[in-house]
Amino acid sequence: MASRIEGLARLKAKLERIPAQVKTAAKGALVQNQEEFATRLAGLIGRGDPARGHLADSIEKGNGLHELSLTVSLGNVRVPYPAHLEFGHKAPDGSHVPAKPAFYPLLRISRKKFDARVMRAARKAIKAMGTTR
């Protein structure tokens, strides 16, 4: 079953109105944000048992639902436990294992910087467009 996003058609219509130069500049900043986030996340996550696979090696970067959307995901089939580390869980003996969050705290810390980088790149592209006309 495919997921449905409310307002996606409206978002796509707005994205179509953005000039190509601004999209290119914003996409460059988004790629830089994605790389920086993945690198910082890999540095925060501890290395586990090599036989089970390292959680840091499961960080994957990909494209999102539209052209100005990128993703960073943590965990895969081989390393299925990032949510247990992020939020805490119960051990097999019933004791509570406390959370060791990394993904969401890093996202909260980085969001302002990342948003500013994209806006700065878009603003610079818009100003460059204004001077070339």
Descriptive notes:
This protein has helices at residues 8-17, 20-44, 82-87, 103-132; strands spanning 60-63, 70-73, 89-90, 96-97. The N and C termini lie far apart (47 Å). The protein is elongated and about 65 Å long. α2 runs antiparallel to α4. β1 and β2 form a beta hairpin. It contains four helices and four strands. The strands form two sheets. It has a two-stranded antiparallel sheet with strand order 1-2. It has a two-stranded antiparallel ribbon with strand order 3-4. It has one domain.
TL;DR of this structure?
By secondary structure, this protein is mainly alpha-helical.
Termini Cα gap: 47 Å
The best one-word shape is elongated
Percent strand equals 5-15%
Helix fraction bin: 40-55%
Q: Low-confidence parts lasting 5 or more residues at pLDDT below 50?
A: none
Question: Radius of gyration from the CA trace?
Answer: 19 Å
Total separate domains: 1
Number of strands: 4
Q: Count the helices. How many?
A: 4
Task: Write the element-wise H/E pattern from the N-terminal end onward.
Answer: HHEEHEEH
The biggest sheet, with number of strands, parallel, antiparallel or mixed sense and barrel status, is: 2 strands, antiparallel
- Strand numbers in spatial order across the main sheet: 1-2
Average pLDDT works out at 89
Which structural class is indicated by helix and strand composition? mainly alpha
Features:
two-stranded antiparallel ribbon, 4 helices, mainly alpha, 9% strand, 133 residues, elongated
